[in-house]
Design brief:
The chain is 66% helix and 2% strand. It has helices at residues 2-21, 36-39, 43-51, 62-91, 114-138, 144-153, 159-163, 181-191, 196-206, 231-241, 244-278, 286-309, 319-339, 355-403, and strands at 96-97, 102-103, 166-168, 176-178. It is globular, with a radius of gyration of 26 Å. The two termini are 28 Å apart.
Length: 404
């Protein structure tokens, strides 16, 4: 009983520490390869956050890869449908009628709707996530796709990259030396030891060549197990194993994931609240009605499933990107509104002729975004806790089976 109480206290204290550390300046950045909290771990483990599911049963699973590709293709259909439908309704001067008044909602251009912005972010995120997952799944296999990635991104072997990289020695910051691959591994290990004898003993136990993203022969002389808690080595490992283009795509996907989780839920809640208040009639055709549900309802379902499945880290300070996204939308709709202040009111609540109302709405949305990001962060911590329990339970089952 006492042990369980101590464990509960330690976990709650750990959560408080994590929450406090979230407000460090470096957590505002998307450059995870420069984040000191990430550098404490194996870089391969950090990379898995962005191309694998948080649940071990789905890691390296073909089923997970197929799901990422399927959901990207599936939502592309409804993304295109929303553009085509808006064009058709505008060309026909189609109105959605309500029992209270005439709603000019579908007479505005497609790009000025909040739903359209949310769909675009979701569309890009789903395809980036599918591509990144497929890349890391296929590069260790001898397939046509693997050869395509080899051709597009260059050789998977990191040795040529490492030989051309220079890093600055932390003990003499003014002197920069280039080294061979083997020199790097040995130097990185010796940095954390006091004597050469200790370094040699550590090298014997930790310098085993681990599976990396180099090639099928695992010819990497810079194993990820040697670079944890070493900022220079950590950055070097990322540069040597992740193509620059892919690194940028990972950061964009991470950014869009944080935005879509909040914006999709806001769009769904806002739309159905508005539809209920205005007592809007159904769409003219069943296809249009299904498309409407995908734009305003199914998008949140996809976002929630991603919250459950994805291992993308969640940083509280990243709420500023969602706020910036919202303010960019406000600027676009304001520019659209000033062209015709009577007709170009996209949403009745967002009427720039009522500055006090507008200021109140956007202030409330900013506060709501911050609160939702905290909830998202807590949900991520819960996922980490459940994953830890799952791994512990699996180890216990395995040990019980082996003892029998």
């Amino acid at each position: 009983m006492e042990n369980s109480d101590k464990e509960t206290v330690s976990k709650s204290f750990n959560l408080r520490e994590r929450f406090k550390n979230e407000f460090c300046k470096e957590n505002l950045s998307l450059n995870f390869e420069k984040n000191s909290q990430f550098m404490e771990k194996d870089p391969e483990e950090i990379l898995e956050y962005f191309h694998s599911s948080i649940w071990p049963c789905l890691n390296g699973s073909l089923f997970y890869v197929i799901y990422r590709i399927f959901i990207a293709i599936y939502y592309t259909i409804w993304f295109v449908e929303s553009i085509v439908r808006n064009y058709e309704f505008r060309s026909q001067n189609f109105y959605i009628t309500t029992k209270k008044n005439i709603n000019l909602l579908l007479l505005h251009p497609w790009p000025v709707y909040m739903t359209s912005w949310s769909l675009t972010i979701l569309f890009v995120h789903l395809w980036l996530s599918a591509f990144i997952t497929l890349y890391f799944y296929s590069i260790d296999q001898k397939t046509i796709l693997s050869r395509f990635f080899h051709f597009f991104f260059g050789p998977f072997s990191c040795s040529s990259k490492v030989q051309n990289i220079q890093f600055q020695n932390s003990q003499s910051s003014k002197q920069t030396n280039s080294a061979t691959v083997s020199d790097f591994s040995e130097a990185f290990i010796r940095k954390d030891t006091n004597t050469n004898d200790e370094a040699e003993s550590v090298c014997k136990t930790t310098c085993s060549i681990r599976k990396t993203y180099c090639d099928n022969k695992h010819n990497c002389h810079l194993p990820s197990s040697t670079v944890a808690s070493n900022s220079e080595a950590w950055k070097l490992w990322i540069q040597a194993h992740v193509p620059k283009v892919l690194l940028v795509l990972i950061k964009i996907s991470w950014l869009f994931y944080n935005i879509i989780v909040i914006s999709a839920i806001v769009v769904t809640t806002g739309y159905f609240t508005y539809a209920f208040i205005m007592d809007m009639e159904t769409e003219p055709t069943w296809t249009a009605e299904i498309g409407n549900l995908h734009r305003h309802g199914f998008n949140s379902l996809v976002a929630i499933v991603d919250i459950i499945l994805l291992a993308y880290p969640v940083k509280i300070l990243h709420f500023v990107y969602t706020c910036a996204y919202g303010w960019c939308y406000a600027i676009v709709t304001f520019i659209y509104w000033i062209q015709d202040t009577k007709k170009n009111i996209v949403y009745e609540q967002i009427d720039y002729g009522k500055p006090f109302q507008i200021a109140l709405i956007f202030t409330m949305l900013t506060i709501l975004t911050f609160v939702m990001q905290i909830i998202h962060f807590l949900a991520y911590q819960l996922k980490l806790y459940l994953k830890e329990k799952y791994v512990e339970m699996k180890k216990k089952c395995f040990s019980n089976d082996s003892s029998v």
